[in-house]
Amino acid sequence: MKPTHKECTKCHEVKLLDLYPKAPQNRDGHGGTCKVCIAAYQLRQRRKRTVRPKAISEDNKNFFRLGVMEGERRVHELEKALAILQTAIKALMEVIREADKAEAGSKAF
Ligand SMILES: [Zn+2]
User: Fold this and answer.
1) Mean pLDDT score of the chain, rounded to an integer?
2) pTM of this prediction?
């Protein structure tokens, strides 16, 4: 008589052969681990897989945040430099305008 039940190698519960995945290479035609244990294992693996990318994306977020902070710092520095340049340009324009005025005046004479 063919066995209808067997013990799972994981949970050691005696279950119906139908509750084991088909494995033609096995004597009884079914794998040694029950479907429940396989499902639980696969769920654990899936959770592991979803945890890893999360950890990576958290690192990426931190890198991104650092990048933004660094970027903001540089923008602030650039704005300061730009303000200084604008003041310098204004002063230069003033000098040029004065020189033009002087030249125009000298031409007029
Ligand atoms: Zn099991």
Assistant:
1) 86
2) 0.44
